[in-house]
Write a structure and sequence with these properties.
By secondary structure, this protein is of the alpha/beta class. It folds into 2 domains: 6-118, 3-Layer(aba) Sandwich (Rossmann fold); 128-282 and 314-332, Dihydrodipicolinate Reductase, domain 2, CATH 3.30.360.10. It contains 11 helices and 15 strands. The strands form 3 sheets. Strands 12-11-7-10-9-8-15 form a 7-stranded mixed β-sheet. The chain has a 6-stranded parallel β-sheet with strand order 3-2-1-4-5-6, sandwiched between helices. Strand 5 (92-95), helix 5 and strand 6 (120-122) form a beta-alpha-beta unit. The structure holds nicotinamide-adenine-dinucleotide. Residues 12-17, 37-40, 73-76, 78, 96-97, 123, 125, 174, 279 line the site of nicotinamide-adenine-dinucleotide (NAD). Nicotinamide-adenine-dinucleotide (NAD) binds at residues 12-17, 37-40, 73-76, 78, 96-97, 123, 125, 174, 279.
């Protein structure tokens, strides 16, 4: 590392890029967030948060030898190119999910990273959530016995802007990719087969782009367990994130988090806060923790716990889910 200082460049500063940048600035005093590059950079924001180099040119990162790591938060369909360029320039990489929609492109990115000898961590933030970690640890230690059923609910509060849909990769690639990673992470099993049923129940205009907004997936896992994932692009009541692993000795579940745990009971009923509204609120600490892992890996010259291999596996499941939806039949993922 240069001067033993971690110097980061942000590539992309939209919705999630700004969040990561502000998290780095607020939580990691040992890190120098030196540059931000975005084709449509919000210069006012970048100046306000105090990032010294503000540019629309990628060379502001690649040509700066002091920058030894980059956080890539540009749209998903740009990630592979960005990874290749950054790995070629010797930068360690944190990249948002998914790395690409096509498995072969992810393999290319992974090869470029391997050849350059740099780190690639992928943004599967849920792996760093304390509730999910508690579930995973219980499964791993055998507390609930042999997993039989993994039941996951994953629903967004509000449908995305229609402009987002064409380049998003679709519901399975953009949204369920987190759930596919979760099912592998929670159980330690691989997905052997998937069956997807999907529909346009939220907005028919999403269907005009060839995408769906609602789906139920059943998965057969390598350990014999069955997974069920139900997803939707709109709840109107918040970000619905619940999961349960049911096994031979019991069950463990992570429920929705709410701004407060206060329960009001009165003649009209019993009331709780709605779940946190968005992923940014629900997984606030997990987003900081994943960057913490990236920084720790840079400091110790270690490999991250979630990498290009995990990125590839989740996308292979998404591809199989899409195929299943089209064929209306289960699709095998056995290698
Ligand atoms: N882990 C999560 O929970 C999570 C949540 C949201 C988004 N994401 C992922 O993060 C990525 C970005 O999503 P977002 O919602 O922030 O998108 P966004 O559209 O808000 O931001 C993307 C930014 O990248 C910039 N950009 C586009 N092409 C560029 C290029 N070639 N060079 C430089 N800048 C470029 C755009 O101007 C924009 O500011 C996507 O891959 C998405 O899947 C992950």
């Amino acid at each position: 590392m240069n001067d033993n200082k971690i110097t980061i460049g942000m590539l992309g500063a939209g919705r999630i890029g700004k969040m990561h940048a502000e998290n780095i600035l607020a939580n990691f005093p040992q890190v120098d967030l030196k540059a931000v590059v975005d084709l449509k950079l919000d210069f006012e924001w970048a100046k306000k948060v105090g990032i010294p180099i503000r540019s629309q040119e990628i060379t502001a990162i690649t040509d700066d030898p002091k920058i030894n790591a980059v956080v890539i938060t540009t749209p998903s369909n740009t990630h592979v190119e960005m990874i290749k360029v950054m790995a070629g320039a010797g930068k360690n990489i944190f990249c948002e999910k998914p790395i690409a929609f096509a498995p072969d492109l992810i393999r290319q990115a992974n090869k470029a990273v391997e050849k350059a000898g740099v780190i690639l961590q992928v943004g599967f933030n849920r792996r760093f959530d304390t509730d999910i970690l508690k579930v995973r640890n219980a499964v791993e230690s055998g507390t609930i016995g042999h997993p039989h059923i993994i039941n996951m609910t994953s629903r967004d509060p509000k449908r995305p802007n229609l402009k987002f849909i064409p380049d998003s990769g679709g519901l399975f690639m953009d949204f369920c990719v987190h759930d596919f990673d979760m099912i592998r992470f929670l159980t330690g099993y691989e997905v052997e087969e998937i069956y997807a049923r999907g529909a346009n129940l939220v907005d028919p205009k999403i269907g005009e782009f060839g995408d769906i907004d609602t789906a139920v997936l059943t998965l057969k896992l390598s350990g014999g367990a069955i997974g069920i994932i139900n997803v939707c692009r709109e709840t109107n009541y918040g970000y619905d994130q619940q999961l349960e692993v049911f096994g031979s000795n019991g069950s463990i579940a992570a429920q929705n988090r709410r701004p407060t745990s206060v329960k009001l009971s009165c003649k009209d009923g019993v009331f709780l806060d709605q779940p946190f509204y968005s992923f940014i609120e629900r997984y606030k600490e997990a987003y900081i923790e994943e960057i913490n892992e990236f920084i720790k890996c840079l400091e110790a010259d270690e490999k991250p716990s979630v990498d290009g291999h995990d990125a590839l596996e989740a996308v292979l499941i998404a591809v199989a889910a899409q195929k299943s939806l089209i064929l209306n039949q289960p699709v095998s993922l056995k290698k």
